[in-house]
Design goal:
Elements lengths: L1 E8 L3 H11 L5 E4 L11 E4 L2 E4 L10 H10 L3 E2 L6 E6 L2 E5 L1 H15 L3 H4 L19 H7 L4 H11 L11 H10 L4 H9 L2 E2 L2 H11 L4 E3 L4 E6 L4 E5 L4 E9 L3 H4 L3 E3 L4 H9 L6 E7 L6 E4 L9 E8 L2 E8 L10 H9 L7 E6 L19 H9 L6 E3 L12 H21 L12
Parallel strand pairs: 1-2, 1-12, 2-9, 6-15, 10-13, 12-19
Antiparallel strand pairs: 3-4, 5-8, 6-7, 10-11, 11-12, 14-17, 14-18, 15-16, 16-17
Helix pairs in contact: 1-14, 3-6, 11-13
């Protein structure tokens, strides 16, 4: 049986960051990745004649962990393409105007939705600083219904949120409030950080930079099926039957795949419940290459009323335009059906001509089983907070369970830094079981 100081399960942004941090402290680290590539739910791949981000891609200078890495490695950000036109489906019709006119309509209802964000999360980095058990029972759908909006304004609000959800009834309002509170109660600031600024050279450039600093041993195509904390050490079993013995483990895989790993001893009730109920996001990201350099636009449609819920001209390439589309329900439209994608986009821009599409099915991917995290009611301040405290010698990391920037690259890196810090400190001071409590996190 092979022995290391630490095993990191998963080579997404969280996994490679944690492994790098630990290896730089002189610890022997092995990274066990189920896929045949690194990056997790970030995935820069050739497509539409260019290289495109099929998964998570957006970062911001306000995000401390990401920005530190970008500055250290000399990676700049790419300014988004200006959208001079906005289209929004509301009350059965498509409306259009400038982006400023769209936000004049959206602003008042967003202000209502997030009115208590900072009150609820006055210290976003201490997610349980105040008791939010009441709103943890509230779904996004509940909150929208409570506002008493007209059909038109409800659809405007629904469409603006549709790009980050699957179904409003399945998600808790708490995560959205927390995200907005993180950006000083400014919803526009939150949405800017989440969906506009990409990295020069793409996510792969950042991944390669992190890996270049790491001495961890990377093993691809190595799914893990069991993790057992044996008191004095942790045993890891792979699908192929290989076993690895370590002093500590960091599990950095998507929430929806955690149920495929047998973890012993059993996880606490709230954590097990969160894993069993899963992340409900079954969305898709579709890229469309359309003929010619068209006017920059952004489009929005409510959940369930249109197969494409958010679309934006991302950049021009070789005389054509690349459009990024978010579909809240991946089952609503096939990415490889050019006719369907074109018809959906023509609801907003009538003469648009789609010449190619590209996508990755995260919902059907065995090692993601869903998209970005948008917690169910009750999980943000309970199961997710508890799993971050660790489980004996086993720690957890990843954007799905992050304490800040849930669902984002920044969240993955923030949680990885915390997990690596705790593991390194425990292994440096004793060989006893890792501490399982941290104050108010």
């Amino acid at each position: 049986m092979e022995k290391f100081d630490v095993a990191v399960i998963g080579a997404g942004m969280a996994g490679i960051t944690a492994a790098r941090d630990l290896s730089k402290k002189g610890l022997s680290v092995v990274v066990l990745e189920a896929r045949d590539r690194v990056g997790g739910r970030t995935y820069l791949e050739k497509g539409l004649g260019d290289k495109i981000e099929l998964g998570g891609a957006y970062v911001h200078w306000t995000q401390a962990h990401v920005w530190h890495e970008l500055q250290k490695h000399g990676i700049s950000l790419l300014p988004p393409l200006t959208a001079t036109k906005a289209y929004w489906l509301a009350d059965g019709s498509v409306h259009s105007g400038t982006e400023e006119e769209y936000y004049e309509t959206l602003g008042p209802v967003m202000t209502q939705l997030f009115a208590d964000a900072r009150e609820r999360f006055p210290l976003p980095y201490m997610i349980n600083a105040v008791d939010n058990s009441d709103i943890e029972r509230e779904s996004i759908e509940d909150r929208i219904q409570s506002l008493g909006l007209s059909a038109y304004h409800r659809d405007v609000l629904d469409g603006a949120l549709a790009g980050v959800v699957h179904k409003h009834k399945d998600h808790g309002i708490a995560q959205l409030l927390h995200c907005v509170a993180t950006y000083f109660g400014d919803y526009k600031a939150f949405f800017e950080t989440a969906s506009f600024w990409a990295m020069e050279g793409g996510t792969k450039r950042l991944i390669d930079a992190i890996l270049s600093e790491s001495t961890a041993e990377l093993r691809l195509s190595t799914p893990v099926t069991a993790i057992q904390d044996r008191g004095s050490n942790v045993s890891i079993t792979t699908r192929a039957g290989q076993m690895v013995l370590v002093r500590s483990a960091i599990v950095a895989v998507p929430l929806n795949t955690l149920g495929d790993i047998e973890i012993t001893p059993s996880l606490p009730r709230l954590v097990a419940q969160m894993i069993e109920q899963k992340n409900p996001v079954m969305a898709s990201k579709i890229w469309a290459r359309v003929r010619g350099e068209i006017e920059g636009f952004a489009a929005f449609a409510p959940v369930g009323q249109h197969p494409i819920n958010a679309a934006r001209t991302e950049r021009y390439y070789d005389g054509d335009t690349l459009i990024m589309c978010i579909c809240s329900d991946a089952a609503a439209i096939r990415a490889d059906d050019l006719t369907a994608v074109q018809a959906a986009l023509r609801r907003f821009v009538p003469d648009i001509e789609v010449v190619d599409t590209a996508s990755h099915s995260w919902a059907n991917d065995e090692f993601s089983q869903g998209g970005w995290m948008m917690h169910r009611p009750g999980h943000l301040t309970n199961g997710a907070a508890q799993i971050r405290q660790g489980h004996g010698r086993i720690r957890f990391a990843g954007s799905d369970i992050a304490g800040l920037e849930v669902g984002a690259i920044e969240g993955a890196m923030e949680s990885a830094a915390a997990a690596a810090r705790d593991v390194a400190a425990a292994l440096a001071t004793s060989d006893r079981s890792l501490p399982t409590t941290r104050p108010r996190m």
